[in-house]
Specification:
It is a single chain. The protein is α+β, with helices and mostly antiparallel strands. The chain has four domains: 16-176, no CATH class; 207-218 and 526-588; 225-267 and 380-519, no CATH class; 272-377, no CATH class. Helices cover 29% and strands 30% of the residues. It contains 14 helices and 26 strands. The strands form six sheets. Strands 7, 8, 19, 20, 21, 22, 23 and 24 form an eight-stranded mixed β-sheet that branches. Strands 12-13-15-10-17-16 form a six-stranded antiparallel β-sheet, with no helix packed on it. Helix 2 runs parallel beside helix 3 and helix 3 packs across helix 4. It is elongated. The protein starts with a helix and ends with a strand.
Length: 592
């Protein structure tokens, strides 16, 4: 064990730290991090030693020490601390700063005994003796800081003399100062700020609450109809120049509509082969059943076969049905007027006689016992008289249906040539249009021709009436505003909703009487700048002051003038409306 201790002692001696030069700073008990760093950063020496007394402000927080260490290292220096403050030693160790309990008389630093890694031996006087403040080994016994300071008054030790000079200078400076500002404790400062904020919030909550009401007035759609007279300008120029009320000038517009269609042919020419086969005809009656030539036999899917000659089917004898085999040939078209062709090559199946009633069809019937053959499909289309009639009717309808769109197109072309705001609009309605007889052109020899489709061309002359749309809108808007309720205002007029209904046409005077209708949106006028709005807002404030937010909403929504309401309180957690009406503000939200 003795040898082991000796080994450890040698290891400590071997790890002695040699310091090229040193700089000692003596700190006051209330020095802050910034004050200490301002003094340290000016020195050119790398190793900086701070002598810090007990209960110093620096030892109140580990953060202080870490900040000081980081800033000193950023300045390219290494920090050492000399103190006998127990708490300071503990925090300094945690901050990773070398700490020493006292300064040896020889100039070395004695680390705390419990931290062997931080122990350094006294510096040798022969090492780096070039600097005036280089630590040297002294022959005296080791002294504590207090002893060293006391002794320094008698002996002028270089760094002790410097320390005493600094202390005397500081004491003189403090005497000259009229007052001393002491940095507050951080925890106390945080507590003071927190309490101040809470007090401010409490004051705001009690004295300065507020509410904002977002009100949407109730609105509804209104429409108004006005009787107008459209008088042809050329025929009624004198009357129109006197500007009679609700009589507007109109003009004629003419155009010719052209349409061409392709009509598909529905007639069929069957050029395929008809299937052939043999049927066995059965008779369940006790007497013979004669069949004339071309008697039809039909399958369940409509294929028709015919016999070519007179046949008599034997009677039923002794419970055995009479039967006879006959040759049959398929028709070119089936029962649904579709080509039979290769569909006539039927498999063995049962057939009935479509010319008999349902009761007799049970008494006599036929069966094919082998598959029929020889049927092939080859059909060509041809134009029928029905196709020509269908094309004519369709073309007439297309011409009539396109009257309004063609007149609109013609008026739009006229509007495109206008530079001013005058825009013309078509007076719509069958009574306002004049149509000529449609002229249809189809090739005269088309009926019976083999073709899939044919062309039909048609044209028709049409006449319409147009007017200045803005003149009508001006009259309608003025009438709509007159019709609105006294306590409401018009917020929107939808010009696209204007409609006309022609109720009289006078060909002699060339006047057309119409009823025009226009829709708009009106809402209650609750603007506080107006008398009605100011009265309503004051009524709302008087009724909701001090009430719960939901109760205030319910009351406001019960008013006929309000459609929706949103209330935002300040502070946001306030459950009630402020008790002071002036703390309630109102903002209007437009109707959608």
């Amino acid at each position: 064990m003795a040898e082991k201790k000796e080994t450890n002692k040698e290891k400590i001696i071997d790890s002695t730290k040699t310091v090229s030069s040193r700089k000692i700073f003596y700190c006051d008990i209330d020095d802050e991090v910034t004050m200490i760093f301002d003094r340290v950063k000016g020195t050119k020496l790398k190793d900086v030693y701070l002598v810090i007394p007990r209960q110093a402000t620096m030892f109140q927080s580990l953060v202080n020490l870490k900040i000081l260490k980081r800033k000193v290292e950023e300045a390219g220096k290494k920090l050492h601390i000399i103190t006998d403050d127990v708490n300071g030693v503990h925090l300094t160790h945690q901050a990773g700063i070398p700490v020493y309990e006292r300064l040896e008389t020889q100039g070395g630093y004695v680390p705390k005994p419990e931290d062997e890694k931080m122990r350094i031996t006294p510096l040798k006087a022969t090492v780096n003796a070039l600097e005036d403040e280089t630590p040297t080994r002294l022959s005296e016994k080791k002294l504590s800081i207090s002893e060293l300071l006391g002794r320094g008054r008698k002996r002028k030790i270089p760094f002790v003399s410097s320390a005493l000079h600094f202390i005397k200078h500081k004491e003189k400076k403090e005497k000259d100062m009229k007052f001393v500002v002491v940095s507050p404790n951080r925890q106390a400062l945080i507590a003071l700020v927190t309490i101040s904020i809470l007090l401010v919030l409490i004051i705001f909550y009690i004295a300065l609450p507020g509410s904002t009401l977002y009100l949407t007035p109730k609105s509804n759609v209104i429409d108004h109809s006005v009787n107008l007279v459209f008088a042809d300008y050329e025929s009624n120029k004198t009357e129109l120049d006197s500007h009679p009320p609700k009589v507007l000038g109109s003009h004629k517009i003419m155009t010719t509509i052209h349409r061409t269609i392709l009509q598909g042919s529905t007639g069929k020419i069957f050029q395929g082969q008809n299937a052939r086969g043999r049927l066995t005809v059965y008779n369940t009656q006790p007497k013979p059943w004669p069949l004339i030539p071309n008697t039809r036999f039909q399958t369940s899917d409509g294929i028709i076969f015919r016999i070519q000659q007179f046949v008599t089917v034997p009677p039923n004898r002794g419970g055995i049905n009479g039967s006879i085999d006959v040759d049959v040939t398929a028709d070119g078209l089936d029962a649904y007027n579709q080509p039979a062709g290769d569909r006539g090559n039927i498999q063995p199946s049962k057939l009935f006689l479509p010319g008999l009633n349902a009761d007799n069809q049970k008494k006599i019937f036929a069966e094919s016992k082998v598959a029929f053959v020889g049927g092939s499909t080859a059909v060509k289309k041809k134009v029928s008289a029905e196709d020509v009639a269908a094309a004519t009717n369709k073309l007439k309808k297309d011409l009539e249906d396109s009257v309004e769109s063609e007149l609109d197109r013609a008026i739009q072309e006229k509007n495109n040539d206008l530079a001013d705001r005058s825009k013309f609009s078509l007076l719509k309605g069958k009574l306002a249009y004049t149509l000529s007889e449609p002229r249809i052109s189809i090739a005269p020899d088309v009926v019976g021709k083999e073709m899939d489709q044919f062309e039909a061309v048609g044209e028709m002359d049409v006449t319409g009436v147009y007017f200045n749309l803005q003149e009508v809108l001006d009259i309608m808007k003025a009438e709509l505003k007159i019709r609105k309720s006294p306590d409401k205002r018009i917020v929107k007029i939808d010009e696209s909703t204007i409609t006309y209904r022609i109720f009289d046409v006078d060909p002699a005077t060339k006047k057309i009487k119409v009823t025009a209708t226009l829709k708009g949106l009106e809402e209650y006028d609750i603007n506080p700048s107006r008398e009605n709005g100011e009265r309503l807002i004051q009524k709302i404030k008087d009724h909701i002051v001090g009430r719960k937010t939901q109760d205030a909403k319910d009351y406001i929504l019960s008013l006929p003038e309000i459609a929706t309401v949103e209330i935002k309180n300040w502070p946001i957690w306030a459950p009630t409306i402020p008790g002071i009406p002036d703390n309630i503000s109102v903002e209007l939200v437009s109707s959608p």
